[in-house]
Design a protein that fits this description.
- Keywords: Glycoprotein, Leucine-rich repeat, Repeat, Signal.
- One of its GO terms (cellular component) is plasma membrane.
- This protein has 362 residues and is mostly beta strands.
- The chain folds into 3 domains: 129 residues, Leucine-rich repeat, LRR (right-handed beta-alpha superhelix), CATH 3.80.10.10; 90 residues, Leucine-rich repeat, LRR (right-handed beta-alpha superhelix); 89 residues, Alpha-Beta Horseshoe (Leucine-rich repeat, LRR (right-handed beta-alpha superhelix)), CATH 3.80.10.
- The protein is 7% helix and 14% strand.
- The protein contains 2 helices and 19 strands.
- The strands form 4 sheets. It has a 13-stranded parallel beta sheet with strand order 1-2-4-6-7-8-9-10-12-14-16-18-19, with no helix packed on it. Strands 3-5 form a two-stranded parallel ribbon.
- The longest helix is centred in the first third of the chain and has 21 residues.
- The radius of gyration is 29 Å and the shape is elongated.
- 34% of the residues are buried.
Length: 362
């Protein structure tokens, strides 16, 4: 009758013994992390790099969280099942320069999660499930140059979320669910050069959301829902060289819409709903070399509408509703080499319509 109590006592003693050994230095209870070896589920064959891709991970490996690894400059934890990033996940990687977290299931990132990564230059968070970002999520990333947030489900961004990113050059926010841009959202990105916002649902640019981006050279803004471009839409973009606005709903271009973009060399306005090109709309664009107006509803191009485009080389007007051109339609285009104008409703062309296009390739 005393056998069962005796067995229970023995089992209790074994459990206590196991816990006691785990608190000491015994290796019989395997909770010790060897910080001198490669973290479990990772590959460290390339010096300075740790790759933990496609391992079914649901969290950052403990061998990264609990170890100091000052030699690591690249960490790739992409193609996993990670949902959350916490403030302690990367505190042992003081010299990390590139962090890849793309194609996980991340829907939440704690504030200050990357604050210890003062050497980080590239952060890839694309292909996750983020719907918004917390205000201080990028705090401390003063050396970050590229931030990739595309292909998430981001519908809103708090003002100030990018304020610490004073070195940022590339910001990729395309293929999200943004419908508006606060005019102060990009206020503290003095070095930003390339901004990708295509594939969102942004409807309005009247609040001058780019007014602080004087160093921006590329703005990729296709596949949104912009109806009208006004003087305020492109304010502040004095250094912009390439502007891509294709596949929006643009119907009208105000006469002074491009007054803030004198450095443009390439302008893509194809696949919109523009009906008329006025004589002065492109006047400020004396450096423009490529103008794409294909796949619109253009019925009228006013005389001398392109006359100030003295640097233009390529002009695309195909697939519109033009019925006629005059001897002044292409006035002043001395440097134009290629004109694409097929698939219109033009029935006749004046004999001297191309008199000034002396460099046109035939």
């Amino acid at each position: 009758m005393m056998i069962k109590p005796a067995i229970s006592l023995i089992l209790f003693s074994l459990v206590i013994g196991l816990y006691a050994s785990s608190d000491g230095n015994s290796s019989s209870f395997n909770t010790t992390i060897d910080c001198d070896s490669c973290p479990a589920s990772c590959n460290c064959d390339i010096e300075g790099s740790i790759h933990c891709t496609e391992k079914g991970l649901t969290a950052i490996p403990p061998g990264l969280i609990h170890c100091e690894r000052p030699d690591v400059i690249i960490l790739n934890v992409s193609f996993n099942l990670i949902q959350n990033i916490s403030v302690d996940d990367f505190n042992g990687l003081p010299n990390l320069e590139r962090l890849f977290l793309y194609d996980n299931l991340i829907d939440d990132i704690e504030e200050y999660a990357f604050s210890d990564l003062t050497s980080l230059e590239l952060l890839s968070l694309d292909g996750n499930r983020l719907t918004t970002l917390k205000p201080n999520v990028f705090m401390g990333l003063i050396g970050l140059k590229s931030l990739l947030l595309y292909s998430n489900s981001i519908s809103s961004l708090p003002v100030g979320v990018f304020d610490d990113l004073i070195s940022l050059i590339v910001l990729a926010l395309h293929n999200n669910r943004l419908t508006s841009l606060n005019p102060q959202l990009f206020a503290n990105l003095p070095n930003l050069q390339r901004l990708y916002l295509y594939g969102n649902g942004i409807r309005d640019l009247s609040d001058s959301p780019f007014q602080h981006l004087s160093k921006l050279t590329l703005l990729y803004f296709s596949s949104n829902n912009i109806i009208e471009l006004t003087n305020a839409s492109l304010a502040g973009l004095n250094g912009l060289r390439t502007l891509v606005l294709r596949t929006n709903q643009i119907r009208t271009l105000s006469h002074d819409v491009f007054i803030h973009t004198p450095s443009l060399t390439s302008l893509y306005l194809d696949s919109n709903r523009i009906r008329r090109i006025s004589s002065d709309v492109f006047s400020p664009l004396t450096r423009l070399q490529r103008l794409v107006l294909s796949n619109n509803l253009i019925e009228v191009v006013e005389d001398r509408a392109f006359s100030e485009l003295r640097s233009i080389i390529f002009l695309y007007l195909r697939t519109n509703r033009l019925q006629s051109i005059t001897e002044k339609t292409f006035h002043g285009l001395f440097n134009m080499q290629q004109l694409i104008i097929y698939d219109n409703l033009i029935t006749s062309i004046p004999g001297n319509a191309f008199r000034q296009t002396v460099n046109l390739r035939r």
